[in-house]
């Protein structure tokens, strides 16, 4: 797994553009050249809600090119609603890039699995893989076709697109992980981001295929920088990512809680004990 | 330290002399290094480290966090590597922090507290100790001490006997009479009181019919608890002579002023750092400006000024020019 970034800083970014990709799904571009320079695929940022009255919100970096970075998010509560109200010219405060990054070196045939909001954290990895000459299939699942946002972008950037919807309005009807499990062309690497039930299913399918899978985990954050130990996942102690903790008194000695925001958000599926 | 504007914001807490009256709350700030990319640590008064216990602790099951109206619930459960590991691997790096470093001690028996305190306080990297007798998230154990005046006294006496370093005792709001606990802590040798720890609370997922926290209950922090904390400071300030570090939902300079005026000599910032790590610095700068505009030359002069009958209050004499 790529090492944890040490080049994070605070950024005062000006919003460049705002686009509603679907009802309640917003793409927000902002001017942050320093952030772009050091962001790796899988990194996230913490954005302070403009009112300053609520905790900062963690969002994967969607695009990062030139002076412009962007985040893609679904309006699910008050904090994301505040962000969705921003328009070009307004300023946002954000910290990043944070967390670790996907390991993408050497993969030739990659399946990227994205569920719903998970799409927001995998574009940079897809772009990097395509430019390295890898074959990239995007398995993209959502509740309904309308929420398969920005899917054509991935096709333009060189990915093969396979989609599923819960309601059958586009592609396979059912879970995206079922579609992945059905493939006869087994990838040599799997990257995934999405709701936890989907990630668990990816881990299972990857295990059956005997393919290493990297899961970018969505979890509730408080600080986002490793200070509060609120966003943890159970990890095998032998993992290179496991924080150096001596065995604790219960649940055996082989598991340690790792911070999604610091040791993660990307973990090897076979090292999680959830 | 006298600010460039001529206002003195320094504060003395026990043997600690801090240039700024700002503590970073235990458990919210890691060991400081996590926030170093985002804030100049030399502009903070002190960092209170995450609590350490005698034995390693796995911590509570997940989820450990829930965002709630004007605040958040947490139930981390004192995840920490235990004092042996902590002393061997972690403490040395605290020497490089450009501000005061306060170690935090938690335990499950009086002997635990004394043992961990003695070993931690022996280290030069640790400037002072905070005794966390008020963690609400360790199943019926930790907080017991802060809810019983006699147990509070016993713990504080035991810890006091282990060190001459400044001793801060962190009190729980989850009690009937916080003033009586505060008096016991003072009598047992505390140099200062941290008021308050989080308020117990819970949230339920109405789709799953299940508590949202893995630990079922948690500690509420953030703006939601500020009025509770201001009152606690007000009541404790009338009961003791030792300094109070006021905390609970401080997000702005105005919030901080409420605590000083209620009787706190210093403040601690926790959850607000999660919104903006620059908040402690902004508050310090704005406090200096607030006082300068009112011709008040030192922060100490306004401590307790809103506390009716507060015997220890400095007499405010509007400094001329």
Describe this structure in words.
The complex is a heterodimer of chains A (274) and B (321). With 274 residues, chain A is an alpha/beta fold. Chain A folds into three domains: 9-98, Elongation Factor Tu (Ef-tu), domain 3 (Beta Barrel); 109-218, Rossmann fold; 220-264, no CATH class. Helix content of chain A is 18%, strand content 34%. Chain A is built from six helices and 16 strands. In chain A, the strands form three sheets. Chain A has a seven-stranded antiparallel sheet with strand order 4-3-7-1-2-6-5. Chain A has a seven-stranded mixed sheet with strand order 11-10-9-8-12-13-16, with helices on both faces. Chain A is globular and about 50 Å long. Chain B has 321 residues and is an alpha/beta fold. Chain B has a single domain (18-281), classed as Aldolase class I (TIM Barrel). Chain B contains seven helices and 16 strands. In chain B, strands 3-4-7-8-9-10-15-16 form an eight-stranded parallel β-barrel, surrounded by six helices. A four-stranded antiparallel sheet of chain B has the order 5-6-14-11, with no helix packed on it. In chain B, a hairpin with a 2-residue loop joins strand 1 (11-13) and strand 2 (16-18). Chain B is globular, with a radius of gyration of 19 Å. Classes of the chains: A alpha/beta (274), B alpha/beta (321).
């Amino acid at each position: 797994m790529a090492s944890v970034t040490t080049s994070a800083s605070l950024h005062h970014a000006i919003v460049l553009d705002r686009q509603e990709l679907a009802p309640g799904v917003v793409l927000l571009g902002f001017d942050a050249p320093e952030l772009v320079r050091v962001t790796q695929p899988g990194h996230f940022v913490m954005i302070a809600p403009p009112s300053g009255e609520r905790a900062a919100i963690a969002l994967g970096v969607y695009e990062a090119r030139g002076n412009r970075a962007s985040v893609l998010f679904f309006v699910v509560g008050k904090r994301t609603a505040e962000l969705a109200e921003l328009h070009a010219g307004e300023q946002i405060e954000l910290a990043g890039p944070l967390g670790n990054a996907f390991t993408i070196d050497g993969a030739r045939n990659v399946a990227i699995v994205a569920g719903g909001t998970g799409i927001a954290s995998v574009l940079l990895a897809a772009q990097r893989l395509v430019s390295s000459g890898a074959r990239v299939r995007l398995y993209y699942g959502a509740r309904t076709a309308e929420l398969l946002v920005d899917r054509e972008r991935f096709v333009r950037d060189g990915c093969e697109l396979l989609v599923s919807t819960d309601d059958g309005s586009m592609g396979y009807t059912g879970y995206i992980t079922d579609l992945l499990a059905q493939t006869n062309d087994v990838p040599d690497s799997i990257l995934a981001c999405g709701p936890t039930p989907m990630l668990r299913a990816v881990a299972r399918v990857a295990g059956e295929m005997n393919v290493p899978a990297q899961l970018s985990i969505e979890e509730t954050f408080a600080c986002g920088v490793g200070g509060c130990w609120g966003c943890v996942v159970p990890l095998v102690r032998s993992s290179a990512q496991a924080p150096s903790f001596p065995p604790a008194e219960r649940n055996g000695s082989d598991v340690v809680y790792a911070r999604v925001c610091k040791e993660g958000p990307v973990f090897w599926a076979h090292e999680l004990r959830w | 330290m006298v600010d460039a504007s001529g206002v003195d914001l320094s504060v003395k807490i026990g043997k600690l002399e801090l240039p700024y009256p700002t503590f970073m709350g235990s458990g919210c700030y890691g060991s400081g290094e996590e926030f170093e990319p985002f804030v100049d640590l030399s502009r903070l008064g002190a960092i209170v480290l995450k609590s350490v216990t005698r034995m390693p602790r796995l911590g509570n099951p997940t989820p450990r966090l829930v965002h709630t109206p004007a605040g958040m619930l947490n139930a981390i459960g004192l995840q920490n590597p235990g004092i042996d590991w902590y002393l061997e691997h972690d403490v040395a790096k605290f020497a490089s922090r450009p501000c005061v470093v306060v170690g935090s001690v938690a335990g499950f028996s009086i002997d635990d507290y004394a043992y961990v305190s003695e070993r931690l306080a022996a280290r030069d990297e640790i400037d002072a100790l905070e005794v966390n007798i008020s963690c609400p998230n360790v199943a019926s154990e930790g907080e017991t001490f802060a809810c019983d005046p006699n147990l509070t006294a016993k713990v504080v006496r035991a810890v006091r006997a282990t060190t001459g370093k400044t001793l801060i005792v962190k009190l729980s709001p989850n009690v009937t009479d916080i003033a009586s606990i505060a008096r016991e802590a003072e009598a047992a040798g505390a140099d200062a009181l941290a008021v308050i720890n989080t308020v117990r609370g819970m949230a339920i997922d109405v789709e799953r019919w299940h508590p949202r926290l893995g630990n079922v209950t948690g500690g509420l922090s953030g703006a939601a608890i500020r009025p509770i904390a201001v009152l606690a400071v007000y009541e404790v300030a009338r009961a003791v002579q030792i300094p109070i570090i006021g905390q609970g939902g401080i997000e702005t300079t105005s919030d901080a002023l409420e605590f000083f005026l209620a009787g706190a000599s210093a403040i601690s910032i926790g959850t607000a750092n999660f919104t903006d790590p620059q908040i402690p610095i902004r508050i310090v700068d704005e406090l200096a400006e607030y006082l300068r505009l009112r011709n008040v030359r030192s922060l100490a002069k306004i401590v307790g000024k809103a506390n009716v009958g507060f015997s220890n209050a400095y007499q405010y004499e509007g400094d001329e020019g």
